[in-house]
Amino acid sequence: MKQQKALTLKTLTKSNVWEVEENDIFRMWETAEKESDFKDNRNHYMDVIRSAFEIEEIKIDKPEVIKKYEARDFKVGNIHFDDNDNKKWGIKKRAINRITDLTYENIHHISAAKLIEVLDCNFGGGWDSLSQSVQDIIESGFDISTTTLPKDRLHKPGGMYDKKVNDGYEVLEITKGLWVEAIFAKAKPKVENHHKHDDDNDSMNNGFGDNYDEDFEDENPSENSYDDDDDDDFDEDKLTEESYRTTFETEEDLNLEAEDVADDDY
Q: Whose CB has fewer CB within 10 Å in the chain, the N or C terminal residue?
């Protein structure tokens, strides 16, 4: 709350504008219009506000018209552009309901529960069904991990599912026949984001989270890394849970296996 109260039109960015609400915009605009450089910066302010809010000018100032805007969840108020121009606006925070609504600017301002809700409403093909650009956006704000297990084993007491939930992860379960893919999401601490992302270089970030980098460095499979144990020692629990890796690492393992097969053919 203290951070929101400290914000002004001058300090608003396309990221922190998601922290404020409609009434805050009216209040900040009223304060800013008294400043000497207001007219020079007015278009910039409008551009920042529009990145997070829908704005409609109400040209017919009648109670029945205003009620229609309010029925659409718009907040209505007066906006002064200059001494002779007093306009009535309808302002509404842009909803984040679809995967395409997610951006580098707003991803840090939604909860993991909200992210799971958006994912649940928009796709059923699993994490891999998302485009790489959407995955990058999500992973810039959240730690993401996935696993796929038989239905009757996903909720095994003391298993990875329980451990993730107990560690504060939200989870989305996607049924795939007799198996279930679980997507775990947990917001990254904001203290970790300030040195990685800002409004100027978000688009340059590769989107892979901290866990990806560490796991990628630690896991470097090679053709000599497999055990020579007999098939009798095969433990399915260990394969599906203890050997759990993120989606990205699984893809690398598959690629390496494919290369090994190719080598054997010659």
A: C
Write down the pLDDT at residue 256.
43
At 5 the pLDDT is 54
Which candidate, 248, 115, 125, places its Cα nearest to that of 169? 115
Q: Tokens representing 182?
A: 């679980």
What pLDDT, on a 0 to 100 scale, did the predictor assign at position 83? 61
Cβ neighbours around 176 below 10 Å, total: 12
Phi and psi dihedrals of 35, rounded to 5?
-85, 150
pLDDT averaged per 10 residues, the chain (length 266): 67 94 93 89 94 93 93 91 75 94 95 95 84 96 95 90 95 92 93 43 38 39 40 45 42 45 46
Q: Which residue, among 9, 91, 101, 7, has the nearest Cα to 48 in the 3D structure?
A: 9
Q: Do the beta carbons of residue 22 and residue 92 sit within 8 Å?
A: yes
Query: What pTM was computed for the model?
Result: 0.66
Torsion angle (degrees, nearest 10) of CA 125, 110, 103, 31: 160
CA 75 to the chain's CA centroid = 26
Structure-block tokens of residue 215: 């796991």
